[in-house]
Amino acid sequence: MAYLLINRLRLAVLCLSVLLAGCVSQRRLPYLQGKDYSTRTPVAVPNTPPPYRLQPNDVLSVRVQSVQPALNDIFNVTDGRNIMGGDPGNMFLAGYNVDAGGTINLPTVGKVKVQGLTIDEAQALVQQQVSRYVRDANVLVKLLSFKITVLGEVRSPGRYFVYNGQATVLEALGLAGDLTEFGNRQNVKLIRPTPQGNEVTLLDLTDPALLASPNFYLLPNDALYVEPLAARTNRANAGNWALVFAGISSVVLILNYIQITKNN
Known about the structure:
wza like fold; 7 helices
């Protein structure tokens, strides 16, 4: 009987060790772990968002407003209901696509080179071109294809569209429902497409210096990947180990019962 109790104790200790290996330390969970933060005085962190410059395959909304409704309708191919409804497919079909040459093709005006321009610069250029045909026109240009992708250890991974022209790393994670407790906050990959290929940067969400980083602001088509902690694998394997330990315990009980029966 003593031998049986010892075996049970060993199995219990082993099971407990596996379960503890699947736990996540509290100190690894909070974001922006700075010692300079105060409940009384806000801490200013200067950071200027980088300007996004238009590239091929971007999709723009061009809205023309003037006292000549008939001429406005020539340019306003984007239905306002699609924008309010937030249907990316409809917005893509109704918008102006930046072609491989970096131009958009406007009715009557023709091709306008917008590659390399910011949204404000593109709006000023389109305003200048449209004003040649529409008197006292007011032109609004918006980027419809501002999308980001969040993958890995978040609650709702997927692709998300941004409609305010700007997004931060924290906003992107908020759209994805935040990290799970198994997300590695110290090793988040930022994948950014460039004309030369892709750039990969590692972000540490626990470091307050992130707020001042140029990578704090996301650009269209950026992707975030949150790596899982080792605790995720340990927790996933805990159930399998529990079955193994239960089987071993059953075998030990049977063998001990047979041994006791023979001795009697």
